[in-house]
């Protein structure tokens, strides 16, 4: 109970719970809509989803400052690839939160002259760039982990037989693919924060891909992706050691 109270006392913790609720409603609404006798339930889910989405906007009002702080931290990264990717990603998140704030102000009626569709598209574009750059960083980290796993295994194996070097040498295409997937599995298994961050960013990018028309998805896929991403986010907030660190 104490851990839950500490979690909900954090703005990020409350936002993750609201986000999980929002995308759960979206997923359930998609699953129930085809059935005519579920109209009332679908309407209630739609209202709850809208209310939770509005509540989340309040939590995000100060995220511009957090994104700027993340930019300052990423600049100090020692590795060039993470430094460039995370710095650019954070700058794009700053622009995304600015657009999101403008859209929120418009929804309150204080700036009714704002072009909603234009700002929404800008927000989706900046969010997409931020996630894309984060995924590039994740893939780079995955490649480093795969090299390390392959290196560690090569040290353990003294024999030069192709049968024992199945992680790095394969004559047949099927064996090569199996070796690669197995190497990827072991790399992510030994680094859970990297696994969570990769899954989270991959699931998150489905939404802006759909909004920008790059890859159209249905609300069910977006809802499921958002729910999985939210669960990953909840884990990283509840257990800070599961958050991918910048070196």
Give an overview in words.
It is found in: Peroxisome membrane. One of its GO terms (biological process) is peroxisome fission. The chain crosses the membrane at residues 220-239. This is Peroxisomal biosis factor 11 alpha. The protein has 247 residues and is mainly alpha-helical. The protein has one domain (1-152, 174-242). Helices cover 77% and strands 0% of the residues. The chain has helices spanning 2-9, 11-32, 39-59, 63-75, 80-107, 116-156, 173-189, 192-204, 206-211, 219-238. Helix 4 packs antiparallel against helix 5 (80-107) and helix 8 runs antiparallel to helix 10. The radius of gyration is 21 Å and the shape is globular. The relative contact order is 0.13.
Short account of what is shown:
By secondary structure, the protein is mainly α. Helix content is 77%, strand content 0%.
Number of separate structural domains: 1
CA gyration radius, whole angstroms: 21 Å
Largest sheet: none
Portion in helices: over 70%
**How many individual β-strands?**
0
Q: What proportion strand?
A: under 5%
Key descriptive features of the protein:
77% helix, mainly alpha, 247 residues, transmembrane helix, peroxisome, peroxisome biogenesis, globular, protein homodimerization activity
Topology:
Blueprint: H1 2-9, H2 11-32, H3 39-59, H4 63-75, H5 80-107, H6 116-156, H7 173-189, H8 192-204, H9 206-211, H10 219-238
Helix pairs in contact: 2-3, 2-10, 4-5, 5-6, 6-7, 6-8, 8-10
